[in-house]
Amino acid sequence: MTDDLKYPIGKYAEQPFSESLKEEWIADIAHLPQHLEFAVQNLDEAQLQTPYRPGGWTVNQLVHHIADSHINAYTRFKFILTEEDYSIKAYQQDKWAELWDTKNLPVNISVTLLFALHKRWTEILKNISVEEWKRTAFHPVHQKKVSLWYLLGSYAWHGKHHVAHIIQLRKRMNW
């Protein structure tokens, strides 16, 4: 499998803090729901059940995954801002992608959820001080402490990464 199918916008690379990058990443978070809604617009059920790459999730699973991931991200930001020595709770995203809500509910449920979630999340992000961006939590998957700044970049990338999967699939399939 080529990396462009798995990582259509490349892998996330940590970057040093800057006000301009902060504004860009917050805008990425703020606008993700609209970009995702556009990416899945007019897809029928067969298209939604198509894997976005060989061995990958279906578009349906991917949309619900974004909501699951960003719910976790939102709560992680709140915990890190309000608790000391916080350890991120990892979750089994592949198992979550097989649960009944993902299988039984249409993607518009998760897209709608993301509109409200990202509105609240963006309000928090816009008000984090320069010093607070340095707050950290232990990430069990990475086995290291990660800062809010790192997580902001990671989740801004995450949304664009998965929207690109859907757009890339649409182009390949001529949908």
Secondary-structure-based class equals mainly alpha
Q: What is the count of β-strands?
A: 2
Strand content: under 5%
Task: Determine the CATH superfamily.
Answer: dinb family like domain
Radius of gyration: 16 Å
Number of domains: 1
For the largest sheet, list the strands in their spatial order: 1-2
**Looking at the structure, what is the overall shape?**
globular
State the major sheet.
2 strands, antiparallel
Order of helices and strands: HHHHHHHEEH
* N/C terminus separation: 22 Å
Helix content: 55-70%
Q: What's the rounded overall pLDDT mean?
A: 97
The name of the CATH architecture is: Up-down Bundle
Q: What is the CATH fold-level name?
A: Four Helix Bundle (Hemerythrin (Met), subunit A)
Which CATH C-level class is it?
A: Mainly Alpha
The DSSP helix count reads 8
Query: Could you list the spans in which at least 5 consecutive residues all have pLDDT below 50?
Result: none
Tags for this entry?
175 residues, mainly alpha, Four Helix Bundle (Hemerythrin (Met), subunit A), two-stranded antiparallel sheet, 62% helix
